């Protein structure tokens, strides 16, 4: 089957990783895979994975030039299935695919609009527009969890249009021997001038408003001020970059913790395992999430995890993370202080088995292959 994935992003994140996993899994199952995306690191990801990649940017919410070019591409290459990700790509791709006569048109808004950090009136408009679009032009809309499916039904998407397929993770690359972990930690600490004897509280996500790193900075500063942790014995390592990177640095300076904070900026994907090997604790203070791939990565890496109590994260993480009230940095202080001071017995085996049994990459690939073939 000839498959086209479309997205309008160039910065690495959960959605972009999701598309990379789809590319890899569908190529392994004998499909021919194309990708339309922006430039940047992810363009190279998809090329390296073996897809035929075209660099295209969607300039407007409704981009007539993009639609015309995509319609032509779909017809010339006899594309049988399109799978579009996020609002702009979904809107323009479904229209182009309909005009080109492509019968299988799959959409995926990863984070429901109800969780977007925008005015309520805008969220309602997005919900109305998107539900009409999917009802008229979509074959299937993907939800990553049951809770996200219910949110999409509430937003007006017909139940019969929805299919639940969780993300997957390549679990075996997170099984790192202790001596290798120590080597990775030395490497990361040297690269970012971190004292390797400190305990490292880690976060891994792009620097955008919905990821809540400002809450983590405030909580970390409060832990130091309250002497819940010794200033010189802890480092906060935020792995990722994005539009708020400079703002986060400014906030760290205002809070007086700039000397205890490292923000890496955008990084090569090969560093991800090394970062997880470096962390002693993982904190995920996100305000909005469609799934939370880094949550299951941290769990499979065997880390103690503190994260927001979003319904989707509680569904994905089960009883293994420590949850704090979403958006409440003071509650994050309390939960993180408890975890550090009273660590207890971490059920590493339980959380690793939870990820292995539920979110394996093999199961992820099988589910999508089955969906695609069922619609053909």
Per the principal axes of the C-alpha atoms, what is the gross shape?
globular
In the CATH hierarchy, what is the class of the largest domain? Alpha Beta
Question: SSE order, as H and E?
Answer: EHEHEHEHEHEHEHEHEHEHEHEHEHHH
Largest β-sheet summary: 7 strands, parallel
The helix-and-strand class reads alpha/beta
CATH architecture of the largest domain: 3-Layer(aba) Sandwich
CATH topology of the largest domain: Rossmann fold
Tell me the total number of β-strands: 13
Order of the strands making up the biggest sheet = 3-2-1-4-5-6-7
| Radius of gyration from CA coordinates | 21 Å
> How many structural units, i.e. domains?
2
Provide mean pLDDT, rounded.
Answer: 94
Counted by DSSP, the helix tally is: 15
**Which spans of ≥5 residues are poorly predicted at pLDDT below 50?**
none
Described by its quaternary structure, the protein is single chain
Strand content: 15-25%
CATH superfamily of the largest domain: Glycogen Phosphorylase B
Q: Helix share of residues?
A: 40-55%
Q: Distance N terminus to C terminus?
A: 9 Å
Organism: candidate division WWE3 bacterium CG08_land_8_20_14_0_20_41_10
Domain Glycosyl transferase family: 190-348
Protein name: Glycosyltransferase family 1 protein
GO molecular function, one term: glycosyltransferase activity
């Amino acid at each position: 089957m000839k498959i086209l994935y479309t997205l309008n992003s160039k910065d690495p994140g959960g959605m972009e990783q999701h598309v990379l996993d789809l590319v890899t899994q569908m190529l392994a199952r004998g499909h021919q895979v194309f990708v339309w995306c922006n430039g940047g690191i992810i363009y190279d990801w998809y090329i390296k994975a073996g897809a035929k990649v075209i660099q295209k940017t969607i300039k407007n919410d409704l981009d007539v030039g993009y639609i015309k070019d995509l319609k032509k591409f779909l017809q010339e290459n006899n594309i049988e299935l399109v799978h579009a990700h996020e609002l702009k790509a979904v809107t323009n791709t479904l229209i182009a695919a309909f005009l080109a006569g492509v019968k299988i048109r799959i959409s995926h808004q990863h984070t429901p609009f109800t969780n977007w950090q925008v005015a309520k009136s805008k969220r309602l408009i997005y919900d109305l527009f998107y539900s009409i679009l999917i009802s008229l032009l979509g074959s299937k809309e993907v939800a990553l969890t049951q809770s996200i499916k219910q949110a999409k039904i509430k937003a007006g998407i017909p139940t019969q249009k929805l299919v639940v397929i969780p993300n997957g993770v390549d679990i075996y690359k997170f099984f790192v021997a202790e001596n290798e972990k120590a080597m990775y930690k030395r490497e990361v600490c040297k690269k970012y001038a971190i004292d390797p004897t400190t305990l490292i509280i880690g976060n891994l996500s792009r620097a955008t408003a919905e990821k809540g790193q400002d809450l983590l900075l405030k909580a970390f500063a409060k832990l130091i001020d309250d002497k819940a942790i010794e200033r010189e014995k802890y480092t906060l390592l935020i792995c990722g970059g994005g539009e708020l990177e400079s703002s986060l640095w400014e906030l760290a300076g205002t809070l007086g913790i700039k000397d205890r904070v490292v923000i890496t900026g955008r990084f090569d994907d090969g560093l991800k395992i090394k970062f997880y090997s470096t962390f002693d604790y993982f904190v995920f203070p996100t305000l909005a999430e469609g799934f939370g791939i880094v949550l299951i990565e941290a769990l499979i890496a065997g880390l103690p995890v503190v994260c927001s109590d979003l319904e989707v994260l509680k569904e994905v993480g089960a009883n293994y993370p420590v949850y704090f009230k979403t958006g409440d940095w003071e509650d994050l202080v309390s939960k993180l202080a408890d975890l550090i001071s009273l660590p207890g017995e971490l059920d590493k085996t339980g959380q690793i088995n939870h990820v292995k049994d539920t979110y394996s990459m093999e199961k992820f690939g099988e589910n999508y292959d089955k969906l695609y073939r069922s619609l053909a």
